Each structure stands twice: as structure tokens, then as C-alpha cells.
Amino acid sequence: MSTAPTVDVHAHVLLPEVEALVAGLPGLAEAKALDARRNGPAALAVSGSMVRERVPELTDPAVRLAAMDAQGVDVQLVSPSPSHYHYWADEETAEQVYRLANEATAAHCSAAPDRLRGLGLVPLQHPGHTVRALDHALDQGLLGVELSSHAPGRELSDPAYAPLWTRAEETGALVFLHPFGCTLDERLDRWYLSNTVGQPVENAVALSHLIFSGVLDRHPGLRLIAAHGGGYLPTHIGRSDHAWSARSDAGAGCAHPPSSYLKRLYFDSLVHDPHVLRELVRTAGADRVLLGSDFPFDMGTEDPVGALRASGLADADFHAVRGGNAAALLRKN
């Protein structure tokens, strides 16, 4: 695996076309107001400035490729900025959003198809449209889809999503779980807790729904990548195992201890702590962790390979996470 390319599975593209499409539509103002309450004014001010400064990296393939060269990254798996989910949209608008997002992401990646691979979007708020959206993404040459930790009124354990999981299994599509927003709302509206605490919480909740509900039992071939190292779940999985064995309500939905399902999932390496990364590798397995940077946002890392090297993994595990695992995963498409 030491000869495998270096593959970053967590990188984003900004799609002005999508934002132009939804501008002024009913529901957008309410969604923005909710986002403002959840994040707080200080976080919004900093985030707005940060994104504006990084528009070239987010939109221009040439700038992206130059940054990849500087990082020593050969291939990026590019997903739309989660701000493009727009789960407030009605059915007609939602279809326009995912089609435009899929097509625009594919066009961005077409600038360097040997180095940029893409993911599309699905409208989780309309489960009946998710299979069609996944098929559309695959038709554009994308490798799968990105989705959040929940939609309004629906968790990922909702039976309405069973056709999506089935279709993703059938096609070998990748599913990238990347939360946007946290339902703890104003409790996290200072000090950027909405992200530093909220994102790991949302990852852990969403993965727990998939595990405890039996979704992963029913769909063992699902190829799901969890952003941010899966949040709090992998490092606190012992508590889940204890509940599964000690309580009838916790153990009723899935066939095996929750920790066993970590080895069926994939996780990016973006945990910001070498000790946590080592624990992630221990609990999930070195073959289930993939390099991730969150390019080019400020909550990512500008040196993903260096961050991985700092964890002190064995040489074989280092190269597996650096690119060997992802290269094999991407080749299956």
C-alpha cells in the first residue's frame, strides 16, 4: 500500500448555482434564521469571512489542484458544501437542487477526472425521491452521495429510507455522512460550540440510529463513510455495548454488539488529536479509516498527511489510511 496514491475523502466544493436557484424562495429565510440561532452572531461573522476568503479553493479546480499538490494529496473525493442540503425545500425545488448540485459537482471534477472524484446530494426531506437522486448522481459519473445526520422530523433509522440503502448497496455507491447543524440549537450558540460539540454529537446520534435500529444488519453491503471520525461514538462505544447487553430496549433492534458495526463502516481521519486517531484505528480497524481534511474550511487541517503521521501508526497502517483503503474503495465503483 505504500505505493497507493494519497486520497483525501473529505473535501468540499461550493456551488453558487445552487444558491442562486433557491435565493428568495419561501422557506430559505426561515432556514437561515434557524442556522443563525444555532450558531450565534459571532460564529456567523467569522464563518462568513472565512468562506469568502476561500472561494477560489472552493470553486476553481486549478486552485484546488495547486493546493492538493502543496499538501501531497493525489486524489480528492469532493462533496458539496453541506450548506447546499436545503432540506427545507418542497419536492419540486428539492429535485432542482439535487440535479443542479450533481451536475455542477460533476462538472467541477471533470477538470481533472484522474484526481477529482465527486459525490452528489439526495433530498432526505423527501424519502421517495432519494433513490432517483442517487441514480442521477451516478449517471453524472459521481461515486455516490453526501447526506446529513437527519432531516426535519426524520432520523436515518426511518424505514422510509430503506429503498435508498438498498439502492446504494446494489450500485456500490458511496454514502458520505456529514452533519449540518445540531438540534441542541441555542445551547451551542457561543464559542462555536455548534461545530466543536455539535458535529461530533450529530455524527454519534446518526450512526447510533443506523446501528441500533438494525439498518446495518439489513444492509450489510452499505458503504458508508462517516465524517469527523464518526464523532464521539467510536471512542465511547463501550457505553453502547454495555447498554446493548444490559437493557432489553437497547438490544432489541440490532443483532450484534454495537462495537462490531464499526468494522462495517468507514471513518475519515479528521479528529484533530493523534491519540483519538489511534483509538479510532483500534476500534474500527486500520482498514476502515480514510484520510480526511475538510478542505478548505478552517475546521479542517491544511496538512492531513502530517496529522496522520503524528499519530505514530505502524507503517502498514499509516499507508492504508493515507490512501490504500480509499484507493481500493474508489476502484470498486
TrEMBL record:
Name the domain of life.
Bacteria
Quote a single Gene Ontology cellular component term: cytoplasm
The chain positions of domain Amidohydrolase-related read: 7-331
Asked if the keyword Lyase belongs to this entry, the reply reads yes
Q: Which Gene3D superfamilies match?
A: Metal-dependent hydrolases
UniProtKB keywords: Hydrolase, Lyase
Which biological process terms from the Gene Ontology are attached to this UniProt entry? Answer: secondary metabolic process
GO molecular function ontology, one term from the record: hydrolase activity
List the InterPro entries. Answer: ACMSD, Amidohydro-rel, Metal_Hydrolase
Alphabetized Pfam families for the sequence: Amidohydro_2 (PF04909)
Keyword Lyase, does the record have it?
yes
Tell me what this protein is called: Amidohydrolase
Task: Name its species.
Answer: Streptomyces corchorusii (Streptomyces chibaensis)
